[in-house]
Structures are given as structure tokens and as C-alpha cells.
Amino acid sequence: MPLTQSDIDGELAGIRTGYERARAAGAPAAHHPPRDFPPYRSSLLRHPKQPLVAVDGDPETVELSGPVFGRTDVTALDHDLTRQHAGEPLGERITVSGRLLDSAGRPVRGQLVELWQANASGRYAHQRDQHPAPLDPNFTGVGRVLTGDDGSYSFTTVKPGAYPWRNHENAWRPAHIHFSLFGSAFTQRLVTQMYFPGDPLLAYDPILQSVTDEAARARLVAAYDHSLSRPERSLGYRWDIVLDGPSATWTEEGR
Q1: Is 173 a catalytic site residue?
Q2: pLDDT per position as a tens digit, 71-129
Q3: Domain Intradiol ring-cleavage dioxygenases: where (predicted)?
Q4: Which of 52, 76, 166, 206 is in the most buried spot, having the most CB atoms within 10 Å?
């Protein structure tokens, strides 16, 4: 029989109960999930199963073949995904702003922040995405910006749609935006996802729910901020990204 959402819900409930019991017994908070999280089925197949391989010689030599980004590489239109084509994209226009902070709450300035996302219909502009939802010729779904002196970043885009995936029967991913943080070198890259408040699909998503600790999971959900909404233009969401410490934002690579 096909794997159903009820099956996944049962697995998630069991993992959550086990985690709560461990916490009650004194175990530390688990801000990052295991790389092989059973309800997220493909993680069982593609997580690393061998120990990391040490780089011979100077570790910095690895960075010589990686991309290098400077201020001249980021254009004035890169942060506004609604102005990158001849026409306006379809969908609910939003502004997503926040600050990149270190573990002490200090701003991390001059850092490259990238995002990518599905369009308002829930489809990526990528040849491997075969979801039968319409593509938008005026929306590519990628953007980037450098953080300011106060660690701030801001993107204007459209709210992505939910989309189906094949983790189990009738599986749907909630609306989300992927974020990439490069640090000062490609080998320092961190990747995470931002979600939207009040989305009914959050409770059913094994990727989000793999972050077992409730507080850590809540930090992946942006907050609506009316002060960021622009009159007759876009609704505003605030999402700060913390790189380390007890309030760190979950990243896909872990820490």
C-alpha cells in the first residue's frame, strides 16, 4: 500500500514524543535533525554514510576553485525579483527583510545572501520540475543581495505557492523560500528555508518537522510586519538569520 500522510504523521508523532521524553530526562535541545530522518524518505537514500575526508595540505587551497563574489557582482536589480523581466510576475507581491546576526546579536555586514523559490503557482523555473503548474515568463525565482553595515537585507518577490512532492501519497510542501549564506568563501556556505506564518501545511511537512525542537522550528517561520509592507506594492515579512549560538537559525548542513 502507498505511504500516506497518516503514516507520516504517526512517525512524526513518535519521534516528537521520544524527543520530549529525552528532554525531560535532561537531554540537550536538538536544534538540528539527523541526516537520515525517516519521515523525509529521500534523506535515507542520499545522506553521507562515510566519514568526512580530510583535505591534504592547506585547507584554504580548496577555496581557490570556488566562486568569488564582490560588490560589483551584485546589481541593483538582483534583490527585486519582480523587476528582472519585461513584465510584472503574477502573484502576491511581498517584501522579505531581516538582519544577519552572529551569536552575540552583532550584525554580519557585507555578506552575500541568495534566495531561490517557486513561483506563485508552486513551480520552479527549472527543467527538472515537472509539476503541471504554469510557468511565469516574468519570474525566474532567484535573487541575491549583500548585507548592509547593520547586517540588513531585503528582497522584493512574490509569495511562492505550495507544490506536491513524492515523499508519500498526497504530499505537499508548504510555501517556503530557500536562503543561501556564503560567508567569506564558498566552503562556508549555509543553506536554510524560510516559511510563512499561519500556513496549514506546516504541521504536515516532514522537512520542517524534522527540526524536532519547537523553538528551533519556530525560528524558521517569518513574522508578518506591517511596517515592512509598502503601500499599494507589497506585504512585509521579517526574518532574521542567526549564524550560531542558542538562537541559531537551522541550516541544512548542520553545525
Answers
A1: yes
A2: 668 888 899 999 999 999 999 999 999 999 998 899 999 999 999 999 999 999 988 88
A3: 96-124
A4: 206
Catalytic residue (choose from 124, 153, 204, 237): 124
Cell numbers found for residue 194: 524560510
> Is residue 213 a contact partner of residue 22, using CB atoms and an 8 Å limit?
no
- Per-residue pLDDT tens over the stretch 162-192: 999 999 999 999 999 999 998 766 667 889 9
Please state, as a whole number, how many other Cβ atoms lie within 10 Å of the Cβ of residue 78.
17
* The one catalytic residue among 176, 204, 217, 237: 176
On the question of pLDDT at 68 being above 70, the answer is no
CB atoms within 10 A of CB 28: 8
Active site (annotated) includes residue 176: yes
The mean pLDDT of 11-34, rounded to a whole number, is 89
Q: Is 124 a catalytic residue?
A: yes
* pTM of model > 0.90: no
* Residues with Cβ within 8 Å of residue 126, at least 6 apart in sequence: none
Cα 24 to Cα 10, 19, 193, distances in angstroms? 21, 9, 29
